[in-house]
Amino acid sequence: MTESIFTIISNEKIAKNTYKMVLAGAADGCAPGKFVNIKIDGFFLRRPISVCDGNDESLTLVYKAVGKGTEKMSAMGKGEKLNVLAYLGNGYDLTKSGDAPLLIGGGVGVPPLYMCAKKLIAEGKKVTVVLGFNTADEVFYKDEFEALGARVLVATADGSVGVKGFVTNAIEEVENYSYFYTCGPEPMLKAVYNATSTSGEFSFEERMGCGFGACVGCTCKTKYGNKRICKDGPVLVKEEIIW
Ligand SMILES: Cc1cc2nc3c(=O)[nH]c(=O)nc-3n(C[C@H](O)[C@H](O)[C@H](O)COP(=O)(O)OP(=O)(O)OC[C@H]3O[C@@H](n4cnc5c(N)ncnc54)[C@H](O)[C@@H]3O)c2cc1C
Ligand code: FES
Known about the structure:
Shape: globular
Largest sheet: 7 strands, antiparallel
Low-confidence stretches: none
Distance between the termini: 29 Å
Order of helices and strands: EEEEEEHEEHEHEEHEHEEEE
Bound molecules: flavin-adenine dinucleotide, FE2/S2 (inorganic) cluster
Number of strands: 16
Oligomer: single chain
Number of helices: 5
């Protein structure tokens, strides 16, 4: 974990209340499923946001403005600086993917799957992505996943785009997959747990205190003992989860 200063290159609205921020800056260890913890002026606790894409020189975040911290982030502009703890958490284990992995994201659970898809496709894997949103104006990154070469299925709760319903309705249209990676709100993760036929990995967006294992504020029970979502997670494997 490194405390780094990143400079905002761009910060644009890409869907309803949803922003894409590209940052310039260096920190070692950027990988799919890891997250950064951002210091925002005027707030004691940092805000955790998943890596959407990145390398040793730049970092892309996609985030939804849901409260005061993320609203303040959304008003920041080119050239402004962000103090970031990078890169935190365990991330997804891409070695387990098999030949045809399925990626399932709901809402702000979509961003961490982008770098995941990018790496898997670069390794020659046949990637299917299922994206879930409430309404058409919330949909983002469909085109970006398709540009990578993934097959993309969208589900919206009101049926305004793609399959009407939840990601689990869209999963029914995927014939075969070797393994899965998912991220989204907890009720969605639980539904995915019940709807999937293979092993897979879940990224949890638990509320956090310190974000690096010191306060035990994010501890949860697993079949393999207590784990801190921020340090031992945010990714847990299907076999260890207790709902
Ligand atoms: C590992 C991890 C990765 C995340 N990645 C992303 C991401 O890529 N993009 C993104 O948009 N968000 C992501 N989140 C959620 C993000 O951290 C919160 O939305 C953000 O901290 C809210 O800050 P705020 O000051 O705007 O809202 P607050 O004023 O703190 O809260 C506003 C509302 O949002 C709810 N909320 C706050 N934090 C969370 C949370 N962690 N989970 C669920 N609800 C929350 C509160 O209950 C409240 O209703 C991630 C969270 C974690 C733990
Ligand atoms: S948030 Fe402090 S230990 Fe996880």
